[in-house]
Amino acid sequence: MKRAEIHTKAEKKFTIMLFFGLLVLSATASASSCPIDPTFPSCFKLGASTAAYQIEGAWNVSDKSVSIWDNFTHRVPRVTVDNSTGDIACDSYNLWQRDVEMAAEMGLDYYRFSISWPRLLPKGYDYYVSKDGAEYYNNLINGLLERGIEPVVTLYHWDLPDILQQLGGWTNPLTADWFANYARIVFDLYGDRVKTWITINEPIVVCDAAYAAGYTAPGIKEPYSGVFVCTKNVLLGHAKAWRIYDKEFRHLYEGKVSISNHMIWFEPKTKADEALNELAMQYINGRYAHAIYSEEGGWPSSLEKYMAEYSAKQGYPRSRLPVFTEYEKTLVRGTFDFIAVNYYTTKLIRPAREGEVVSDLFVSGIPDLNAVMESPPTATYGYSTLMSIYPKGLRRILGWLKDTYGDHEMMLTENGFSSSGSELNDQERIDFIRNHLEQLLLAMKVDHVNVSGYTHWSLMDNFEWLDGYTSKFGLYEVNFTDPMRERTPRASANYYSKIIKQRKLDICC
Ligand SMILES: *[C@@H]1O[C@H](CO)[C@@H](O)[C@H](O)[C@H]1NC(C)=O
Ligand SMILES: *[C@@H]1O[C@H](CO)[C@@H](O)[C@H](O)[C@H]1NC(C)=O
Ligand SMILES: *[C@@H]1O[C@H](CO)[C@@H](O)[C@H](O)[C@H]1NC(C)=O
Ligand SMILES: *[C@@H]1O[C@H](CO)[C@@H](O)[C@H](O)[C@H]1NC(C)=O
Ligand SMILES: *[C@@H]1O[C@H](CO)[C@@H](O)[C@H](O)[C@H]1NC(C)=O
User: Fold this and answer.
1) Architecture of the structural domain at 49-502
2) Interval between CA 481 and ligand 5 midpoint (Å)
3) Ligand 3 center–CA 75 separation, angstroms
4) Whose CA, among 39, 186, 327, 403, lies 20 to 30 Å from 365?
5) Is 354 in the active site?
6) Which interval of the chain is the signal sequence (predicted)?
């Protein structure tokens, strides 16, 4: 764990600096005891995020077609813990002006939202664009710009047109082309006003949570091949969309395009688990990053070798990880203008013990690696016991990305805290934001990671996938029994707003 040691060393250095700082403080009573200057660079941006299916509702209005999430949540018995669906959700299709107002109330630099593919292209393909769908996003983008808020747009936040799922969805290589065609329509419609784009949000959920685990839409469990075919196709879809932007739109609009990966920081449980830890890092993070960000492209070599050997041992005639041709490697390599990261959790990794079965991906560990995930002993928890909270992991994953792929601009596109109650006085969320922003500042100011923005998840409570409406992530509370879906700022919204205004974190004051 060379890198963790490097960071640990840097952290030690801080403690020493802090110690001397305190000495100086007590000597002069004027110098700050702060290990870092808590101000954000002037070009650093703070925003908040949502996703179409989680907030829009209006699942069946106008000519919108059903998405795989509409289909999934409508199944009986229901898949969500509270039997809920996103049919109405926050009703942002009708209440988007209030969403813009909330972003303005907090003074957000930007608002990251996603476009619903089946709302904009009801047929799935690019030969028919919904007038109402196009107008909805047009209004939202203009509304934000009128209030001085930059729109940051995600093209795909898990809501594939169901009609394309009938043809195999992301396990069909043609979906990569259909996605790229959809991307071209969106760039063409909004590229004059939208300068920051995310192609796909958290492909690990699109492929691993969906196909390896069967937890999320389309709910087809095929952990042997489906998940890895999906991984490759998602990378190709992202790359094709980036190349369309690069070739057809960059010279006109000078925007930036990337992909938001959900990154888990892993640490070995014991010294003996370092090799397994490295493999877990590649399995979860490198599998969706290496082909894009590394100089050589393709799969991470340690993972490629492991999967070839492991597949042979399992009796498969070829590796379950599909081959990248040289053409495909070149197509995907370098297709980014910045590195986008969603960070929520850190896990310790160790091999399964004799007789211990690793059955469920994420819940117990990584079945393909026979590896068990544990939460760091000092971690805390919000609503979910799976998402152990460990702010230091944020600094370490950013450092790992820089060490592994080079010194590129990075943007945190998600980070947030879930609670089970609707309380407005959410001190835990405030602490979560402060602790993570502190680690982000350390990454920037001490490790010299070039981070350009922080995006809080989420602007407001919303449909939290399988947790339905039981898990609350919002800076704003939403009353889901109110037909008007009244939104009320929590203490964290006021806190975040203050940080944005001051451009300075409230540590060591
Ligand atoms: C939902 O998905 C199932 C399984 O793929 C499919 O048979 C069904 O037609 C879909 N329903 C709708 C309304 O699209
Ligand atoms: C969800 O619906 C099932 C019947 O389909 C019922 O047994 C269960 O109690 C319901 N759960 C909740 C939380 O309403
Ligand atoms: C749309 O769905 C709602 C339920 O969310 C239902 O009440 C309404 O009748 C549906 N409208 C159409 C046009 O199917
Ligand atoms: C960070 O990246 C941006 C975009 O590439 C660049 O303009 C800026 O100079 C970089 N900042 C540092 C400190 O390297
Ligand atoms: C939520 O809305 C309902 C219906 O308007 C109302 O009766 C209830 O008091 C509201 N709840 C809160 C906490 O404001």
Assistant:
1) Alpha-Beta Barrel (3.20)
2) 6
3) 16
4) 403
5) no
6) 1-31
Q: Are 234 and 207 in contact (CB under 8 A)?
A: yes
Model-level pTM? 0.94
- Residues in contact with ligand 3 (CB, 6 Å cut-off): 60, 87
**Is-contact 228 368, C-beta < 8 A?**
no
A 10 A CB-CB count for 504 gives 15
Show pLDDT as tens, one digit a residue, over the chain (509 residues).
334 443 444 444 444 444 444 433 333 333 456 779 999 999 999 999 999 999 999 999 999 999 999 999 999 999 999 999 999 999 999 999 999 999 999 999 999 999 999 999 999 999 999 999 999 999 999 999 999 999 999 999 999 999 999 999 999 999 999 999 999 999 999 999 999 999 999 999 999 999 999 999 999 999 999 999 999 999 999 999 999 999 999 999 999 999 999 999 999 999 999 999 999 999 999 999 999 999 999 999 999 999 999 999 999 999 999 999 999 999 999 999 999 999 999 999 999 999 999 998 998 999 999 999 999 999 999 998 889 999 999 999 999 999 999 999 999 999 999 999 889 999 999 999 999 999 999 999 999 999 999 999 999 999 999 999 999 999 999 999 999 999 999 999 999 999 999 999 999 75
Is 414 one of the catalytic residues?
Answer: yes
Residue with tokens 């109402």: 132
Ligand 2 centroid from CA 471, angstroms: 17
The residue whose C-alpha atom lies closest to atom 2 belonging to ligand 1 is 71
Using the atom order of ligand 1, give the atom closest to the CA of residue 163: 14
* CA angle, residues 35, 437, 209, in degrees to nearest 5: 140
Residue 283 and residue 275: Cα distance in Å, rounded? Answer: 12
AA identity, residue 128: Y
Compute, in angstroms, the gap from residue 467 CA to the centroid of ligand 3. Answer: 23
- Nearest Cα residue to 406 out of 445, 453, 438, 450: 450
Ligand 1 proximity of 162 Cβ (cutoff 6 Å): yes
Q: Which one of 202, 267, 278, 464 is the catalytic residue?
A: 202
